[in-house]
Amino acid sequence: MHDLVNRAIEKFLHAESVHEVEAGLLPPGLMLRNAAQQLGKPVDELVEDLGAWLVRQDEIWRLLRFCGSDFLDFLLRLDELPERIRLITDDVEVPEIALSRGADGLVWVTIAAGSPVWTALLSGLLRAMADDYGTLCVITRSKEGICIDVSDLAFAEARTFRLSARAGQA
């Protein structure tokens, strides 16, 4: 697990212009803490940025976009994400994700064991996916979980999605 996670973190930190990455030598948490210190930002903010960066990786983006036709559909299927990730790799232990939708229309996402790292990572991922779907929403992270208030599902044009990268080539 650590090799896959470390490699992803190393690629992200390189993209963030963090030059002093002790590749493969440190556990992921320590790598992120050191990078956050170098960048002068809180670790949870850096982890949220990592979540947004992961969405920009084509293979991960395709896996995520396959989960819903619009952002709300994607949100309501988010509890399937741990199993979808296990289809690709069983090296990453993804905690269970629970969803609830209030009468006020707010969607709440909670993560098993309330892991602040996973909550921050998922917040960044949700922020990037909302942009990808062209959705205007407010995403708020708290100790209770993540609150998503969707204002406009069609605020901007969504990025075109094709199941295969080759489908658009002809």
TrEMBL record:
Residues 31-134 form the Heme NO-binding domain. InterPro entries: H-NOX_domain_sf, Heme_NO-bd, NO_sig/Golgi_transp_ligand-bd. SUPFAM superfamilies: Ligand-binding domain in the NO signalling and Golgi transport. It holds the Pfam family HNOB. This is Heme NO-binding domain-containing protein.
